[in-house]
Amino acid sequence: MRIKLVLFLLIATSCFAQKITVYGIGDSTMANKSNPAENPENGWAQVLQQFFDDDVVVDNRAMNGRSTRSFINEKRWDSILKTLKKGDYVLIQFGHNDQKENKPSVYTNPRTAYRQNLIKFVTETRAKGATPILLSSIVRRNFNEQGTLVDTHGLYPLETRLVATDYKVTFIDLQYLTELLEESYGVEGSKKLHLHFAAGESPFYKTEKHDDTHLSVLGATEISKLFISELKKTDLDLKKHIK
């Protein structure tokens, strides 16, 4: 009888054990896109679930056009805090929209508001018993006439590094890793990582498309692989759930 009770408790515990949730917060380079069966654009966190086992659920809350400022002001961060629990993870990647000085609803000064918003994400995540992971912004495909990939993010990736150092947060340098990725594909080949279509080439777009910021399925998958590769090098328990 006692053995049956122990077995029952073990099975019950297993059945009701909470899964680890990996939240993604960030901008369009990370976000889920609508109509994924037809849409050639993907965010890199949109394809992340395939690399984890069944004990992990990727809840990608990244959203097109958002910065640290607007993500907070629109209460998107508050909605995550309501369900964030001990053992969860938060992937934090902003910068693309924070730098838009002509849009006061999203712009942040990298050394002041941007830094403080990152600190807010980190400290409030930890207060819930969860683990933050800071990520520098992925690069844009911005080659000059000489074939050099030129930075477009200014101080934002640096400030992310500094917050990670100051607060002892796991940091994954997607800026550097995606620089290497773009360069490995070359000036022309790297178009495949993004959205480059002639008129009529893609049924999803009515006219030609030349977008060097957002990602194709290939680009999103390649960046997810970079994230997973770096995660394996950390001491985080999350890496035990990589397939």
Automatic annotation (TrEMBL):
Residues 1-19 form the signal peptide. InterPro entries: RhgT-like, SGNH_hydro, SGNH_hydro_sf. The keyword Signal applies. The keyword Acetylation does not apply. Pfam families: Lipase_GDSL_2. Residues 25-219 form the SGNH hydrolase-type esterase domain. Gene3D superfamilies: SGNH hydrolase. It comes from the Bacteria. Keywords: Hydrolase, Signal. SUPFAM superfamilies: SGNH hydrolase (SSF52266). Belongs to the 'GDSL' lipolytic enzyme family. PANTHER family: PUTATIVE (AFU_ORTHOLOGUE AFUA_2G17250)-RELATED, RHAMNOGALACTURONAN ACETYLESTERASE. This is Rhamnogalacturonan acetylesterase. The lineage of its organism: Bacteria, Pseudomonadati, Bacteroidota, Flavobacteriia, Flavobacteriales.
